[in-house]
Specification:
With about 80 residues, this protein is α/β, with parallel strands linked by helices. It is built from three helices and three strands; from the N terminus they run H-E-H-E-H-E.
């Protein structure tokens, strides 16, 4: 059973979290949230080439991203990470 993207998106927004995903559908969903003025704390898209079970690589790449983007406002931001495996 696939979870409805909007539900996890809302969870992230209410918990003041940026959503990290490989799912490009969140680009369209971000636009919809912006148009409706719904809560949104950003989306960081990771490459599909990075295996989701490569936890260390993902964590290191997220740390590099966080270091390079110290406390930016993320509301309605869509960004693409450069992650290496």
């Amino acid at each position: 059973m696939r979870r409805i993207p909007g539900i996890s998106f809302m969870d992230a927004a209410y918990e003041d979290r940026c959503l990290v995903t490989q799912d490009r559908d969140f680009i369209r969903l971000t636009v919809r949230f912006l148009e409706r003025h719904e809560p949104h704390n950003g989306v960081l898209l990771v490459p599909k080439s990075l295996p989701l079970d490569h936890f260390t690589g993902i964590a290191q790449a997220l740390q590099r991203y966080a270091d390079a983007h110290a406390d930016p406002p993320m509301a309605y931001v869509i960004d693409f990470s450069e992650m290496s495996s």
